[in-house]
Every structure is written in structure tokens, then in C-alpha cells.
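Objective 1b: paired records.
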Amino acid sequence: MLRYLRMAVRSLGRKRFRSWLTIGAVAVGVTSVVAIACMGHLGKEQIQQELDQLGLGSVMLSVQRKDTGVTLSNEDYETVQKLPEVDGALPVLMQYTQSRACGLVTQCAVWGIGAGAEQVIALQLLHGRMVSAADVTEAGAVCIVDESYARTMYRRSNIVGKEIVLTLDGQRQTFTVIGVVRSGGGLLQGMLSQILPTFLYLPYTTMQAATGSDALDLIAVQLDEGCDPAAASERMVQLLDRRKGGEGLIRGENVAAQKENLGQVLNLVSGILTAVAAISLVVAGLGMMTVMLVSVNERTREIGVKKAIGAGRGTILLEFLTEAMLLTLTGSLLGLLLGFGGAAITAALLQLPFHLDPAMAGGLLLFAMGIGLLFGAYPAYRAAGLHPVEALRRE
């Protein structure tokens, strides 16, 4: 094999420019596949992480249809909270509205939550404190804001003690900031600012007092570890249906299953994009086959001489296959280096975690080598099949 490798290097060195063009074509194909696959993986991980930060427990309970007049109440929340499989429950209200501070007006999503909300939804406290039981009991005019809101309005992170004005049910009300959290999906807010605006959090009783209704939009439930979310959701739905005196009135949504389904969709999209990028590898393989066929025509007399002095079909075949594999291997390694290097730099610039996937690199290398073997086989077969006398006659 070393002899065949030396012969391949010598043969390719005769046409250095053409050889490097072929290597470059393979490298571009591999780089595009690696870049798309890495970016798809990074995007999937980041979106899943942002969805995890949104939290909302393992199961979300809500009414099936709002036009039936059925609502979730504080009593329903207390009933669910006492169930043995429930580790924590949180009453939730949500309203899109406007907030005013420092002379600025911005759209925001106001969430009504209870005490201990950080146990059910992912809220990481940066400054101040969370909503307490006393805030809920007194329906206090206090709020928690996320860090992006604080920086937008006040150009700094810690704004504990500041006052903001919210419009709730058409009425303006002043609230004192008691805490600043890092939550709400920073990446998602940046990409989908119209759908996921800034998040603010109030005691749910404060929102009920402002709207004049004790109805809850949903109950977020955190289940005990090891509990089956689907079975637990069905039991809770049946319990609340009986309380409401009907069937099919309450809906239970398994958040973990929804995230898993979204992950499958993201995997499918990433796979399709990677497959499209892999077409460039096929194009590079066709280009390499063309170059190898030209090389066979240029070296016809050389092949004839080798056959005349005893070289067999297998020797000629292996010689040209080695050249094709060497071109593909060099281009693939260069493409992997450029692809993973570019992905790592992009991840660093976007401050995203980057992990080198050896399995993907190995699989892609084998795929590229297979392309090289496939498209190099025909030129090698053509070269091995030349008759020595006919080859020597050709000029």
C-alpha cells in the first residue's frame, strides 16, 4: 500500500493545480455539511434550553373551551396541590399589556404567579426576592421583572425598588419592583419579539383583583420524580372534570412530551438541510470522476507501458483507486477542519456551547470516502481495462 500511495502522490503532483481544485471541491462539500449539521445542532440545543427556561412544570391544566363558561378556580388549584403525586403546583394568569417606566412604553407579557414559583417554573433570581406568601395574601402591588426589561428601561440589571406602571384590564396601576430574574427565553425573545415580549411577574391575587375575577388561566404542576406525566395528567383531568360536573371540560398537556415532539421536528429539519448540503459532496464526486477520466486519457501510453512490462489489471486498478481515495481523504480532512473550526468560532461569537461530535465527524468521513470510492471506481476500471497494444499506439 505504501508503494501505491507513493505512486499516487507522484501522479497527482504532476498536475498540482488540478489536484488541489479537486481537493477544494471535496473540502467545500464536507465543510457545508459540517457547518449545517453543527448549526442545526446548536440551534436545537439552544431552543430546547430556552424552552426549559420557560418552565411551566411537567403538566399544564387548563379549560378545554373558554366559551363553555367553565373556569379553573383557586379551589381547583388547592385540590391539585394536595394530590400525592404532585411535588408543586402554581396558579398562572397571563395577560399581554403595556408597561411604562422612565418615559418609555413597551409591550410585555404579565404573568400572575404564586409563592414558590421558582420550584415549578425556571426562574433564576439575580437581584431582590421572589413573590412571597404575604404578597399573595395581601394582593400586593409588587412585581418581578426579567433582566432584559431592566436593561431596556433603566440600562442596568438591578432595578429593585423602582416603580413601573402596568395597564391591567384597562386600568393603570403602579407596581414596585421587588426582584429581577433571568428567564423568559432570551434567544426566543430576540427572534420572536412579537410573540414572546418581555416577561413580568405579579402575585396572581393581584391580577385577580385587577380583573375582578378569581378565574385562573392554567395550573402548572410539577410532578414527583419517577411519576408518569401522561397517567398523572389523566387522573388530574378526571378529578377536575368531576368537580365541574361534566366530562371533557378540562385539558391536561404534557409539557415534556411537547418538548420531545419539538425536538423530533428540529431533528427532521436539521436532517433535511444536511441531506441537501450532502448533494454538494455528490457534485464534488462527479467533478473528481471527470478529472480522473481526463487523467486516464492523458496517461494512456504510461498505462500501456506498465501493462507491457507485466503490470496486471489489479495493479492499475489499485493505483487509480488510491489516487481517488487520496484526493477524497485530503479534501475530507480539510473540510472537517474548516467546518468544525468555523462552527466553533461562530458558537464562540454567539456565546453558545460547542461540542465536537466524533461520531458525526467519523460518519461524514466514511461517507465522503465512499463517494470517492464510488466515483473513482469507473475511471480506475477504464484504466485497468485498456489493452496494452492499443494503449501504446495512442499518441
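Objective 1b, second protein:
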Amino acid sequence: MSTINADNIPENINLSDIRREIDSIDTQFLELFIQRMKACEKVAMVKKRDGTPISNPKREEEILNRVEKEGGEFGNGARTFLATLIDISCTYQQMLLYGEDGKLRKKFMTADSELKGSKIACQGTVGAYSHLAAKQFFGEDVEPLFYSKFEDVFDAVTGGETDFGILPIENTTAGAVNDVYDLLTRHGFYIVGETDVDVNHCLLAPKGAKLDDIKEVYAHPQALAQCAKYIQRHGFNTNEYSNNAVAAMNVARWNDPTKAAIASNVAGRKFGMEILEEGIQDIDGNQTRFIVISKNMIIREGADKISMTFSLPHQTGSLYRVLSRFAANGMNIFKIESRPLKGCNFQYRFYLDFNGNVHDEKVCSLICSLSTEMADFKFLGNY
């Protein structure tokens, strides 16, 4: 790659003149871009007539390899530039080809717009943060059914025992609840709502216990992670539990002054426990995001967040090519998570959250395009 020596730059080079030259080149780029998109309209017509798939990976790779080679020292940049153009073209052709006929598009158009049903599944027991989330989202009068494991909540919705499930998906301190992400993908459910719950972890012990008595603490791994500094400072031994409120219930039942649970003050009052200390989480303003799941696609009025998942080939630039299409359509991605694909070394499934509504044509066309191109694509919800 060539380099620039500042001592050898001619004095007659004027930045304003160079900028005018670049502006002229950009104008030509724009004119050519519009011509290319017009040509894509003709391509779409031919593909519709002949029943040809939108994407032709073999041809695309041949073109990109050629451009990279001919681009010389700018080869990588030229390849990325043209790859972005190809991806924008594919999305545009998707819109032209499928219009109202795409399978996913039809699901969007026929999705319910209201949450119908009153039976709610939660993991844990009374006083669990899931219980608080259910009341916060559905109203104080809701009486959810409780299950011991996250998977049991999914099974309850699958079997029709409940209409919805409510589950933690991420915490501002401890990050994603990966088990829930995995179950979402496995079951093919939809996210139809969300709510953020303020987390105020308390150290709970049997009546009469003192802080100096405590040797063991019981809680969900997320809660233990959120209170890690406090636990380390006091030298407690930790024990993982399926749910904070269930841990509190059992610690109360054992009535051992050396054992304590980390849970909400609601759980402490429910089980008649000593609240030894409140707000023991490491970071103030700690919140957990809970999602509402359903077997059915429901897109309520005003929905402005979309979640989806997909996997990609282990190739240079594959993730960039997907993300650049969101930027090209003016869409804001605000969260991306990755999870290893089981049985596939060093390959990953990505979870993406971005702003949008599927009734916006640009958003709909992009999602429908990605769904036809990716074998492992799943639309998780618009809520």
C-alpha cells in the first residue's frame, strides 16, 4: 500500500478543489447507483417469469473475487463496496418479486393486534421477579401459574395450559439469560411484549438470624453474579438455585441461621423472613428485562422493536454484509448477541434487536429478504 510523505506534497494542491472533484465523483456514483437499481427491476421481472431465486451465491462470489483482484491495493474495500450494493439490490428485488405474496409477509398482515387470554406462566413462585414482572405487565390482579424451570414455562404455553409466558431475557449487570434465548429458538415462539423490572436484591434469612451468622447463600446464578462483590466481601459460600424466590422459600423452611437467600423483599415478607440487608446488588439502577412469549404472532399497535435470530457461514465479512443492509435502510440496531451453534465448531447464531415495525414496507422487505436467504433465520417478534 502506498504511503504519503507530508514533505513531498506540492503546495499548489488545494483541499477545496479536491473536495469538488470528490463531489463530482460522488454525483456520478449516485447516477450509476440509480441506473443499477433500475436494472435490478428488470432482473426481478425476469426472475419472476423464470422462477429464478433472488440470490445466486455462486455468481456473487465470482463477481466479488474478480472485483477484489482488479481493485489492487483497494481490493478489500472494493469487494465490501460491491457486496453492499448486491445486498441492497437483493432486498429491493425481494420487495418487487413478492409484494403481498411472501409467506412471512402474509403472517405479518394477518397477525393478531391484541393479547387475548388471561392465563400466564411464570418460573419460580410468589415474590419472584418474574411474578413482579407479570403484575407490572398484565396488571396487579393477575394470578400467574408457577413452574420450576424456564423450559416448563415454554411447555405450559405449548400445551395450552397458559396463554402466555413471562421470562427474564437480560440484566443490566449480568447480561443475557442464554437459556431463554436457546429455548426461544428451539420452540419457535414469538415475543409479544416486554417490561423492565427494577432489581432490589435483599439478603433474606430465617427469623432471628444475624448477618454475622450467615455462611451460605442461595440464589439463581444471575442474582449471584449481580451481587458478586457483596458476596465476596462477606466471604459467603454460594449455591445456585433455579429461582430466587424458591431459594427464599426453602431457606425459610430449613430455619438454619447460617443460611440465607438472595431475593426480593416481597419474597422475604411472603415467607416471613428476616431482611438482613436491602439493595445488595453491585450496581445501582440494576434492571432485568422480561419478555412475554406466545405461540401466536401478535403485533400490537405502536410496536417499535423487532427481534430475530440467524446464523452465518464462517466467512470474512458475512456479519458485516447483513448489518450493512440495516444501515442502508436507515434502521437502528441496538443489541446483538451471539451463541455458539451446537455441533458446529466456531460457528454462531446471532440474536438481533432493532427499531422498526413490520408494517413499514422497508422493514418488511428487508426481513422477508433475509428470511429467504438464510436457512437458519427466525423472526422472534415485533413488540
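The chain has 13 helices and 15 strands. The mean pLDDT is 91.
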